[in-house]
Amino acid sequence: MTELARLADERPLPAGKKLALAGEVAASYAVARWLLRRRGLRSSLELLRRPAASAGDGGPPGAADEVGAGRRLGRATTRTLAVLPADSSCLMSSLVLTRLLARRGISSRLVIAVEPGERFGAHAWVEHDGAALLSPGGDSFEQLVTL
Question: What residues does each domain of the chain span?
């Protein structure tokens, strides 16, 4: 079974794999935060999207595997950042997930949206093939830019 198929599977990950994934989320957070502070959003995204030298594991995965794996990685990112003394904002979560996906050879788009009106709001999430991998925040947000 490929790594993507294992991630797309809804069965719980073994404790060792959960711990390794949490470590990868934490390390990706450190990289994303450092890049964002020094390079800005567009340059950071470009660098975070570089695939790992070992990306892929012997054949193209199916789209369903990629979306399922992406959603599971999104949940792991959200849960891990929530318990760390870290910036767990939607933008930072999206940047971390972008790096996790790229390391597995999965393409993604960062969507930034706004909520117009008296109380301005903004939100960011990640998509793969039009499927949201992090929560798109509801119907009140209008897409501003996709990167």
Answer: 3-107
Please tell me the distance from the alpha carbon of residue 40 to that of residue 48, in angstroms, as a whole number. 12
- Please check whether residue 66 is in contact with residue 115, taking contact to mean a CB–CB distance below 8 angstroms: no
Q: Where are the alpha helices (DSSP H) in 3-50?
A: 3-8, 15-39, 41-48
Q: CA–CA distance from 108 to each of 34, 82, 91 (Å)? A: 21, 22, 14
* pLDDT (0 to 100) of residue 45: 97
Closest by CA to 74, choosing from 108, 51, 46, 48, is 108
pLDDT over 50 at 104, yes or no: yes
pLDDT digits (tens, 9 = 90+) for 48-93: 999 876 654 444 455 668 999 999 999 999 999 999 999 999 999 9
Which residues does residue 109 pair with via DSSP β-bridges, in sequence order? Answer: 127
What's the CA gap between 79 and 75, in Å, rounded?
A: 6
Q: Which helix (H) or strand (E) holds 121?
A: strand 121-128
